[in-house]
Amino acid sequence: MKKFENSVTFDGQNYLMQSKTLKSICEEVETPFYIYDVNYILKKYDMLKKCFPYENLKIFYAVKANYNPHILTFMRDHGFYLDTVSPAEVILAIKLGFDKERILFTANNMTDKEMRIIKEQGVLFNIDSLYRLEVFAKTYPGESVCLRINPEVIAGEDAKVQTSGELSKFGILLDDVKKAVEIANKYDVKIIGLHEHTGSGISDTGKIYESMENLLGAAEPELFPDLKFIDFGGGFKVPYEPDEKEIDYVEFGNRCVSMFEAFCKKFGRRLDMYFEPGKFIMADSACMIVRVNTVKNNKGRLIVGTDSGFPHLIRPVFYGAYHHIINISNPLGEVKKYDIYGNTCEAGDCFAEQREIGEIRVGDYLAIMNAGAYCRSMASEYNLRPLPTECYIYNNEFFLSRQKLTHSELAERILFDYGIK
Ligand SMILES: Cc1ncc(COP(=O)(O)O)c(C=O)c1O
């Protein structure tokens, strides 16, 4: 059986998160549940910071990856900045005690109402269209703003997470940068930041360098006299498959810094350098545990049914993403090929097809790895099943973060939401 390196380790008998065996946690917590390793999350942040040897570096965690408020609280105390995309994300962060100076708001297709809410919160806007810039500038002349530029480089692990290129709905095209400056100047709006986010799960670092060069090429000192920072977005890939090669982020970070240093020299001032990772911080810091309730042998094809499904971990169905699966109840069992299914009324509700896993029996617990990013935050109550419990381990201690509703509580909540007694 291959060992999978992330927040989960294997001691030859058991899978562990810190010093707790996952099996022992299953005795305490009803499945399905997500379990996060908080020390691992903080370690990833520290690692990333070290990769970029630049004094004015700021790491903005992309809250959309996972908004668990207990985890955000640890992040607050550890010095994280936040990348937010909706008014509720901003309000949540502020209620959790993040200073407004540590939050950037990057909404796509923002409404006037959202704009007013964010302005009241005093958070910096990252604006991604000429239209919204004009509305913002007219409404708030003299204010500061960051501009999201489309670096026109296609990158990311799936077409659905490629957020750049001339057909993209995100950002201001490079050709329109001068128009953006004219709008800002007309209303005395100061452009203090330039931003890009090329895509998610980028395996080709060459694409990241290319997008950085495009953005830096557009950042002419005469156009941006008030510039304080450049934000190069997120998209840092982590391995999802056991044999996947990890990107050398030390080499990558050093190259990014050299590129940025050279730019700052030409620009005439040392600017701040921002990044916005979501997946890199959260993905491999957690897993989701499900329980097997059915095993079928359909003419030799082994079909496994579990008590969760794509509403709780949508990435395989949505992006065709690979999530490694281990049988924590039978780690040394004979390896066989399985199709692992969820419990919704959708034929496509499949976590993995023809996957090699230690022999699976009814009642076994399976850990679906890399479930920290874009799993809970993209989860729904489709088929009316309660969202999973969330728990975490910090300094070898187990904590319950959010208990899932019972089926009756969920039904009651629906009636309440619709005003039916
Ligand atoms: C603007 C922006 N920044 C950062 C991120 C984080 O991306 P990732 O989780 O791949 O690092 C995203 C993801 O969609 C994004 O849209």
Structural notes for this entry:
The protein has helices spanning 22-28, 38-51, 69-78, 87-95, 112-121, 130-139, 177-186, 205-218, 249-267, 279-282, 315-319, 407-417; strands at 8-10, 15-17, 20-21, 33-37, 57-62, 81-84, 103-105, 124-127, 144-150, 172-173, 190-195, 229-231, 272-275, 286-298, 301-306, 325-327, 335-341, 350-358, 365-369, 389-394, 397-402. The N and C termini lie far apart (53 Å). The chain has 12 helices and 21 strands. The chain has 2 domains: 8-37 and 284-417, Lyase, Ornithine Decarboxylase, Chain A, domain 1 (Beta Barrel), CATH 2.40.37.10; 106-277, Alanine racemase (TIM Barrel). α4 links the parallel β6 (81-84) and β7. The mean pLDDT is 96. Bound molecules: pyridoxal-5'-phosphate.
Any idea what the radius of gyration is? 23 Å
Quote the CATH topology of the largest domain.
TIM Barrel
Terminus-to-terminus distance: 53 Å
Q: Major β-sheet, in short?
A: 9 strands, mixed
Global shape: globular
- Contiguous uncertain segments of 5+ residues: none
Which ligands, by name, code or SMILES, are bound?
A: pyridoxal-5'-phosphate
Question: Topology of this structure?
Answer:
Blueprint: E1 8-10, E2 15-17, E3 20-21, H1 22-28, E4 33-37, H2 38-51, E5 57-62, H3 69-78, E6 81-84, H4 87-95, E7 103-105, H5 112-121, E8 124-127, H6 130-139, E9 144-150, E10 172-173, H7 177-186, E11 190-195, H8 205-218, E12 229-231, H9 249-267, E13 272-275, H10 279-282, E14 286-298, E15 301-306, H11 315-319, E16 325-327, E17 335-341, E18 350-358, E19 365-369, E20 389-394, E21 397-402, H12 407-417
